[in-house]
Design brief:
335 residues, 5-stranded antiparallel beta sheet, 1 helix, 54% strand
Length: 335
């Protein structure tokens, strides 16, 4: 009996000491390497990254400038993360293709998503689209998704469905965000018609946990506190959301959950100068803490993170070396 009581007391002491590590203990990060993997076009930006058939695939926009009518989506592949080669380039004669994201579907295909900024004059300014591939080299024709002038900025698959938050574009008011989902990445239905309809909420990143909770990291633009990023959380069917103000302005959000349960985010921070940084998100307190500034500056951000072989692999773009270029970084962390 005394032995059992001692064991129970020991467990009581141990459990509270281990649980905070998973929730809010600072993640220790170390930049192991960073390399420029593409700078062959005048402007190279807005990245997506994934693993597919034992290879890396990175996609990004290329064009004459940050905004230009010739925007195309360039796809690179690599077997080792060191040597990269161009394998495909998606173009349009009627639009600037922008903000590509790439993911693997439940059916084992690559799905690329982005938005077509249509050449003006045109009654529509933006149309979101998806493309599919079995090998990363040969891609399907583009599929028109969502509603006109609703920019479906990112995609996240969960239990056979893909979810995306679209934001209202164009010069007309009001501005708002809308939650969509799809079973095939081609036909989308509305889950929440107006997710956030105050201020200018736009870019976002979703993460689903094993208990089916969905977390959303959301960018806002504006002035004062109205420009702070938001953290949202919802349970199935994802129609009722709770939001927390992170207290800081962010850009190009990418939310990521480590196997130990802690949350990271790669974002653009604006102080003291614009740079891309890996931060930690405390989802209980609704706080963002900067952990590791990546080599970056100026026109920069739009990262993607993939955990592979115990290492965080990060694609992003930056102009800190003069020309906007695509970078691939490897970051270690202590578990």
């Amino acid at each position: 009996m005394k032995t059992l009581l001692k064991l129970t007391a020991a467990l009581t002491l141990i459990l509270p000491a281990t649980l905070p590590l998973e929730a809010s203990e600072p993640v220790q990060l170390k930049l192991e390497s960073v390399q420029k993997i593409w700078d062959q076009d005048p402007h190279n930006a807005f990245t997506g990254l994934t693993r597919f058939k034992d290879q890396w695939f990175c996609v990004f926009r290329t064009g004459k400038a940050h905004v230009s009518n010739d925007g195309a989506l360039q796809v690179l592949s690599s077997k080792d993360g060191k040597e990269w080669k161009p394998v495909a380039r998606l173009t349009s004669e009627t639009a600037d293709l922008r903000d590509a994201k790439i993911a693997v579907t439940p059916k084992g295909q690559l799905m690329l998503s982005g938005a077509a900024a249509l050449h003006q004059p045109n009654p529509i300014r933006h149309q979101s689209m998806t493309w599919f591939s079995d090998d990363g080299t040969h891609w399907s024709k583009g599929n028109i998704i969502g509603d006109p002038d609703m920019w479906l900025w990112g995609m996240r698959w969960h239990e056979g469905d893909v979810y995306s938050i679209g934001y209202k574009t164009g010069k007309t008011a009001p501005k708002f965000t809308r939650l969509y989902k799809s079973k095939d990445g081609k036909q989308y239905e509305i889950v929440v018609d107006k997710l956030i309809d105050k201020g200018y909420s736009n870019e976002s990143s979703l993460v689903f946990t094993k208990d089916k909770t969905c977390y959303c990291l959301l960018r806002r633009d504006g002035s004062g506190k109205g420009a702070n990023g938001l953290l949202g959380v919802a349970k199935p069917p994802y129609t009722d959301w709770t939001w927390k103000d992170l207290g800081v302005k962010i850009g190009g959000p990418e939310l990521f959950r480590l196997p130990d349960g802690r949350f990271l985010a790669t974002v653009r921070l604006y102080s003291p100068k614009a740079h891309t940084s890996i931060c930690q998100i405390d989802v209980d307190k609704g706080t963002l803490t900067e952990l590791l500034a990546l080599p970056s500056g100026g026109d920069t951000s739009y990262a993607n993170m993939v955990l592979h072989d115990g290492m965080l692999n990060v694609s992003y773009y930056s102009s800190h070396e003069g020309k906007t270029s695509i970078y691939f970084a490897k970051v270690s962390y202590k578990k």
